[in-house]
Amino acid sequence: MKNRVLTLVSAGTIGTLALTACGSDGGGTSADGTVTLKLVAADYGDKASNSSKAYWDDVAQRFQAANPKIKIDVQVVNWNDIDKQVKTMIQSGNQPDVLQTGGYADKVADNLLYKVDDVLSVATQANLISTFATAGQVDGVQYGIPFVSSARAFFYNKTLFAQAGITEAPRSWDDVRKDAELLKAKAPGTTPYALPLGPEEAQGESAMWELGNAGGITDTSGGYHLDSPANVETFQWLKANLVDPGLTYANPASTDRKTAFADFAAGKAAMLNGHPSLIQMAKDGKVDYGVAAIPGKDGALKSTLGVADWTMAFKKNGHKEQIKQFLDFAYTKENTLKFDELYNLMPVTQDTLKEMTTSGKHKDLEPFFALLPQASFYPLGKTSWDSVSAEIKKSIGTAVKDDPAKVLGDLQNKAKAAAADK
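RE: above sequence
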């Protein structure tokens, strides 16, 4: 989940872990009936010593020991290269059997993937957290299998809050404004609310605020509705209540998430929306932080923004039953728990969520665990989403400086054009 889950995803290792342009043949059947499945997976490690290759090799070895007629050809690729190399594989007719990466919708549009019903048992499907399973659907049919996840929550600096005489986390937008005003007066030199609407992840910050006003990227029918009255009202509120009074950055449109996170970890920002990687950053910076539900217009949200990476199965080699056996094994609690704990990621299966919630080993993540089952998602099933997301990143930040209705209207026109092209 390149820069999408906990920011632990990095460029990954290079060199020996990178694929050649076409990769190995894989996906074959030997004379004795042994089937080889080609697995291509993204690398969540930031160096060779914690590469995901070791994890997948272990999963493959244990699976092969129990299923000697199925071999797994493991290939792990760093995040910078995986999309390009998978595209090359597809174009050359050398598709993997199983792919684990960041998105699936473009492969569905090209009719490359099995339906999840074909490659996961009923029990394994039932074990997926339902909101994440639904996010893997295109036109009501699931093709994407969630692999790891992240959720967002509200972070605040307890020391700065105490300095300003604030005793609890804000629950509503009005609370945020009032607290920000107190922080500006009582904790000068700090940013009361860090509002990152720069091109790194403006689609995320904007979606969280829109969610707080019953708005969002799409309407109830699934069509883009970026300029809905609720969204326009959201940006009007941000402009009038945080930006114009100087309670956030002077230019949110040029401020990225990494800047906001670094400011919070340095004790320079008092409030922001964040994901679990901010926990360790805050600890490293010796910030006494709190985590709460994201404030909404009229009260704390019961849902949150969810992000996921995905597994998918390709039809070309025709190994449906072998893929099902392997995926059912890969999604057992033993394996999913190991991966989530290895990289400090969030679960997508109910048994692993229960284990991580009740084990007592993940206290810092408990606020996020509580939010996961109610997560809302980007319109991941739309093949136009990548281009629409890019447009949102580029310009939605200007909606808190210029006319929100015009900025969002322009974005809506671009979104409609992108959808019409797909």
